[in-house]
Amino acid sequence: MKQILLTSSNFTFIILASIFLAACSSEPEIVEQPEKIYYDQAQRRMAAGNFFSAIESLEAIETRYPFGKYAEQAQIELIYAHFMLSEYEAAHSSAERFIRLHPRHPNIDYAYFMKGIASYTQDANLLARIANTDLSNRDISGAKKSFSELSEFLTRFPESQYAPYAQKRSIYLRNMIARNELAAADFYVSRSAYVAAIRRANYVIENIPNSSENYRALKILEKSYQALGYEELLDDTKAIIKLNYADKIVDTSEDDGWSWRFLRGSKPPQQ
Question: Quick one: pLDDT at residue 141?
Fold first, then answer.
């Protein structure tokens, strides 16, 4: 019978292995909390403005109770929590996911509304407001997307409680898109590229009706037609300006931060 020699290195290994096993066996087990506790916890955290932790609680409901009583409500409140944490892409994705999973949910209008609002949030930046930055000169692809999504919302849910807010936001976005087009038109005029300027101005008049920029677009047309010697078109443009803007009063209504104040006080509806 062979005798097993216990060397110092073997002894050290055995001691360390024993300590490791003891530590593993002493780890506390994760206690599963009832669904209602997670939901109430999320509500308390949101009320305290702790949206990061609220998201953890809401996601725990989704993970542990995907078919539970609070699962759908947790999903719609995730949209709000992500938005309030300035995670706009996550809010938009959560809204799209909710629409896809629950197209007949009684509060589906909220998901469509938040989807449109979350698409464009650049003007929520406090610095931009303080500096009075003209956002129309920036990339407005998000604004166009938001305008399209809010238009879909208003078409689907004209009687929604969120419709008045969506309508006002749409007006603001529509005016911004028009200003963006005319910023390019002004650039073309400064370079004597009048045909390109005419194209931009006509786009605003024909495709963005009732914007605050119609008068400005007509003035660009007037200047361009005059420079090119298009007398008939120039006379028609002057007649339109005289008929519609005799007093030269232009609607320049802007977004006054309504959406951010509204959303900060408007949690998603509960069933």
Answer: 86
Q: Measured on CA atoms in the order 200, 202, 204, 208, is the torsion positive or negative?
A: negative
Q: How far apart are CA 55 and CA 79, in angstroms?
A: 9
Which position has the higher pLDDT, 246 or 169? 169
DSSP 137-154: GS--HHHHHHHHHHHHHH
Answer whether 68's CB lies under 8 Å from 49's CB: no
**Higher-confidence residue: 21 or 163?**
163
In sequence order, what DSSP letters do the residues of the chain get, joined into one string?
Answer: -PPPP--HHHHHHHHHHHHHHHHHHHSPPPPPPPHHHHHHHHHHHHHTT-HHHHHHHHHHHHHH-TTSTTHHHHHHHHHHHHHHTT-HHHHHHHHHHHHHH-TT-TTHHHHHHHHHHHT--GGG-HHHHHTT--GGGS--HHHHHHHHHHHHHHHH-TTSTTHHHHHHHHHHHHHHHHHHHHHHHHHHHHTT-HHHHHHHHHHHHHHSTT-TTHHHHHHHHHHHHHHHT-HHHHHHHHHHHHHH-TT---------SHHHHHHHT-PPP--
CA angle 267, 102, 87 (to 5 degrees): 45
The 10s digit of each residue's pLDDT in 5-39 is 545 555 455 555 555 555 554 445 545 568 899 99
93-146 tens-digit pLDDT: 999 999 999 999 999 999 999 999 999 875 544 334 434 445 445 668 889 999
Q: Are 84 and 51 in contact (CB under 8 A)?
A: yes
Least confident of 118-127, 130-139, 196-205, 246-255: 130-139
